[in-house]
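Contributing new records

If you add data, match the layout below exactly. Sequence lines come first and carry their own label; structure lines follow with theirs. Keep one chain per record. Anything else will be rejected by the validation script.
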Amino acid sequence: ICEMITALDITHPYSDLKHLTVSIGCAAAETDDAFEAGHGALLAAARVALIRAKAAGRNQVIAQSSVNPAG
């Protein structure tokens, strides 16, 4: 996804990089039950992964290891 967005070469005048980039954070629940019991934990893990992607230099995908809200 990042490479495809970069290949579009869309100008972004307010970016230090001067072109559009994408940062993605993702996470996975270990089971359907874990997701149903604590989707908030899954969203929080994805948000942390997104922050890590941006902090690592942007234009990246960071995957958070599986989430098990039940412990």
